[in-house]
Design a protein that fits this description.
The longest helix is centred in the N-terminal third of the chain and has 27 residues. The protein is globular, with a radius of gyration of 31 Å. By secondary structure, it is α/β, with parallel strands linked by helices. The protein has 26 helices and 21 strands. The structure holds adenosine-5'-diphosphate and magnesium ion. The site of adenosine-5'-diphosphate has 19 residues, from helix 11.
């Protein structure tokens, strides 16, 4: 009797003929545990082996299958030793070339008619050649469908895997549309468009891709719905606190900031945990938004944890928030991996008293030795490097017993469709406006040959009382890479401009030293800060109005945009010089000009998406998007809107059907949607 795809999920592969423990182990390498997994293991490519090409018709670049006899076998010495086997089919000859020799190839000799499988025709010195084709006798029937090529693994070849998948297919019905599609994709009829199949653009493939992307979105949406059912502290916002905090800030909030604060405070009043993402371009004033929300939380008697990705940033947040909050009578603490045991004890003491306070720090905030007694709100700044699963882990770790509200702030603008996939479990607020009075940053793209001019311009800039960031893309000089090292640069710059005051900051320095240098720069005790990309996020010195980035071609556009956002923070004209290493490729040139022509993070992200695909825009560590069966975010991003629609349709289906389909597509990550 035939089973449905869903039934096959409960059938271990060991049920199939010929699958013993060793083979089972190899299948596991491909994440294949059940018969359903086998039929969900989709071809990565297709070949047409239904036709025999006459050698006379073969041309370079063609993929061909031939039927011919060996006429000569010769060992070629050449640059690399190889075996050259000349074959002739009566219409002409062609050379089969083998660099790695098996006994089968060494046994080739003039005589019988052979079937020579599939290879690309190339031009060689003595005529056309094919490298490493498969060879068999010519008796086998030509297939009536395209040949699927699967992802394989050590100890499991195409032939073996193909026969296993066929065995599995024979056990599966084809009632459900998806079952029928799987049958067709594993045994593709010659009526299908081969080119579409090979490019994953065939409607059958697109259907599965949409389904898979939709499954991921649903799992995120479900996560969100579950969160909305849980209980958490409920906040009543206090107008006086709001007023006093705005006075402490010393500026008027933008319309966008006010709107976002309103959205957050509304979340905090529902009694259910907030899961909200604030997207705001570099310099849009996310910290001020956080400050107002923090003040409200403290007023409500909560403890608040604010986490930044680096010591440097955490320290900066501490420096800014502490003076804002202290006039309101609230304590701000700092905690990093480097905090001394005594400081930790002191902090723990405060926390134990259940007094409202803000703790600013790094990951150390959520280590086991820190226990909050009334944690109401967790804020994570610049955490675009986190994925869904990491967020959940953090939430679990932070709040045994009760659920805190979570606010995530990112400056990496994420195009809407992608945000849906990457952050579908979060509500989103966008700060779509910069504080008034900002001057645009003039960006120029120059080659290293103009380095001397740039240095002179920098001197001029400093003599006018302004400050400069000089950003290098590597810490130490490297023989193989052309990037200039920061310590070499600072030496060179000091030599050419002895009257200016230089500081150096990079990731390998002790944290105290970094912070001291940063403070000196903020106090204008330094004119030029030579730095690596450690200053990428959050650093805020309004008087710094020129940034020189060496070898910008090494960095992603989002990262460059972040870096550039360190200038243009005051009311003076700001400049960014992208000092590229020569020669610069076409794509690199295009990318740098996007940055030169736009200062809008969203536009930059969209363009970068077009040029490089979502992997680059989102970063590779976005959990929740990994482990895809057939979809590929780079290739299939254009199907995301349809996937989103499909996800909403699915949510109308009975719960058990949804769960079954989620389980099919999501495998082990599925438990997040159920937890
Ligand atoms: P982000 O973290 O979004 O990049 P910040 O919160 O660091 O931006 O703010 C950038 C700068 O703008 C800071 O110096 C901040 O004090 C200032 N700022 C923020 N909001 C306003 C505002 N509404 N009016 C004037 N300046 C503001
Ligand atoms: Mg910031």
């Amino acid at each position: 009797m035939l089973s449905s795809l869903l039934d096959l999920q409960h059938e271990a592969v060991s049920k199939l003929r010929g699958v013993g423990p060793a083979l089972q182990q190899r299948l596991l390498q491909l994440s294949i545990l059940t018969t359903a997994d086998l039929v969900m293991h989709l071809p990565r490519d297709y070949q047409d082996r239904s036709v025999i090409t006459r050698i006379a018709d073969a041309r370079p670049g063609m993929m061909v299958q031939l039927q011919a006899r060996v006429t000569e076998v010769r060992q070629d010495q050449g640059r690399r030793r190889s075996l050259a086997v000349t074959v002739n089919d009566g219409s002409g000859f062609i050379i089969l070339r083998f660099y790695h020799l098996t006994s089968r190839q060494l046994g080739l000799s003039p005589g019988p008619l052979l079937r020579i499988f599939y290879g690309e025709v190339r031009s060689g010195a003595g005529g056309f050649e094919i490298y490493h084709p498969e060879i068999s006798d010519s008796s086998a029937q030509l297939p009536a469908s395209y040949l699927p090529i699967y992802p394989i693994t050590e100890g499991l070849n195409q032939l073996r895997l193909r026969s296993l998948i066929h065995q599995a297919l024979k056990r599966m019905r084809a009632d459900h549309p998806m079952e029928s599609i799987l049958h067709q994709l594993h045994t593709p009829s010659m009526a299908l468009d081969l080119q579409q199949l090979r490019n994953f653009r065939h409607p059958l493939q697109q259907e599965l891709i949409i389904e898979e992307l939709a499954a991921h979105q649903i799992s995120l949406l479900k996560l969100r719905m579950q969160t909305q059912q849980r209980k958490s502290l409920c906040l009543t916002s206090d107008p006086t606190t709001q007023q006093r905090m705005i006075e402490a800030l010393g500026f008027t909030l933008t319309r966008a900031q006010t709107k976002v604060i309103g959205e957050i405070l509304a979340d905090l009043q529902t009694g259910h945990p907030m899961l909200r993402l604030i997207q705001g371009d570099v310099g849009s004033g996310k910290t001020a938004v956080a400050a107002l929300v923090i003040a409200q939380a403290l007023h409500a008697g909560w403890q608040v944890a604010l986490m930044a990705p680096t010591d440097l940033l955490a320290e900066q947040h501490y420096q800014r928030l502490q003076p804002w909050l202290s006039p309101l009578g609230y304590a701000t603490h700092f905690l990093s991996g480097r905090s001394r045991p005594r400081e930790r004890l002191l902090l723990q003491d405060h926390l134990n008293q259940a007094a409202p306070c803000l703790v600013v720090g790094t990951h150390a905030l959520f280590q086991d030795d820190v226990a909050y007694t009334r944690l109401g709100l967790v804020i994570i700044d610049e955490q675009h490097r986190f994925g869904v699963h990491q967020r959940l882990a953090l939430r679990d770790k932070a709040m045994p017993g009760h659920e805190a509200h979570l606010l995530v702030m990112t400056a990496t603008p994420i195009p809407r469709t992608l945000a849906m996939s990457a952050y579908g479990d979060l509500d989103t607020s966008i700060i779509d406006e910069l504080p008034p009075g900002r001057r645009p940053i003039t960006t120029v793209v120059l080659s290293q040959e103009r380095r001397h001019d740039v240095i002179q311009r920098m001197e001029h800039h400093c003599l006018q009382g302004h400050q400069v960031y000089w950003v290098c893309t590597l810490i130490e000089e490297s023989e193989t890479l052309s990037a200039q090292a920061a310590d070499v640069s600072v030496q060179e710059l000091r030599d050419s401009l002895p009257t200016l005051r230089f500081g150096l900051i990079h990731g390998r320095m002790p944290s105290a030293e970094k912070q001291a240098t940063m403070r000196a720069f903020a106090l204008h005790e330094l004119d030029v800060l030579v730095a690596t990309t450690v200053i990428e996020v959050g650093v805020d010195v309004p008087n710094a109005s020129l940034m020189v980035i060496e070898n910008p071609e090494r960095l992603g556009l989002a990262q460059l945009h972040q870096l550039r956002g360190r200038v243009g923070r005051g009311s003076i004209d700001s400049y960014c010089v992208l000092l590229y290493g020569t020669p610069l490729g076409t794509l690199a040139r295009q990318r740098l000009s996007i940055l030169r022509d736009s200062q809008d993070g969203f536009i930059i992200a969209e363009k970068d998406l077009e040029l490089r695909g979502p992997g680059e825009v989102l970063g590779t560590r976005q959990a929740g998007l990994s482990r895809l069966h057939i979809a590929d975010m780079e290739r299939d991003g254009y199907l995301l809107p349809q996937a989103q629609q499909r996800a909403y349709q699915w949510l109308q289906q009975p719960e058990d059907e949804q769960q079954a389909l989620l389980q099919l597509w999501l495998r082990e990550s599925h438990h997040y949607a159920r937890a």
